[in-house]
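Dear colleague,

Thank you for sharing your sequence with our group. We've completed the structure prediction you requested, and as agreed, I am returning the results in plain text so they can be pasted directly into your records. Please verify that the sequence below matches your submission; if there's any discrepancy, let me know and we will rerun it promptly.
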Amino acid sequence: MADERPELKPDERQALTRRRLLKAGVRGACLLGLGGAVAALARPTRAEHMVWQLDPHKCIQCGKCATNCVLALSAVKCVHAFAICGYCELCTGHFEPEPNALNTGAENQLCPTGAIKRTFVEDPYYQYTIDELLCIGCGKCVKGCGTFGNGSLFLQVRHDRCLNCNDCSIGRHCPSQAYRRVPASRPYLLKDKDHPA
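Please find the predicted structure tokens below.
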């Protein structure tokens, strides 16, 4: 039985082959695009890494940061916003409410570990810096500064120490619910002169 299709000329055969190739290419490109779109939709989006932080505007300086951290020495430390500090001679974050004298004697200091260092600048100004290795995160200095001063001392979780537990022990015990998750790219909630308290 003979083939009944007419014999194609070489240039017609070449055009037919190009047409098939073009159709196959377009079909393949569409399938590839559709497959890529499905894969992009199926791929889970990566959430930004989050860390725990203490909101200084909600903190009530209850002292639980010092005692409820899973670390032996709390990851919460006092931070000083120098831009809003008054550099007072009688710093209520450094001194007891009624100090015997305005000197660095332990009996006059509010901090139980001596973590706040007082340095003379010029009369009547003094600079106060925090030695974070000594700070236990008790918040006594923060409470004194906020009650009688301008609130330049506040507490923050230091991420070079924090284990970033899934369920923060301090956050669970925080009576003011001041702990929250923040993006690791912006891990600190700082006070400034526009938002001091």
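Summary note from our side: The first strand starts at residue 50 and ends at 54.

Kind regards,
the structure core
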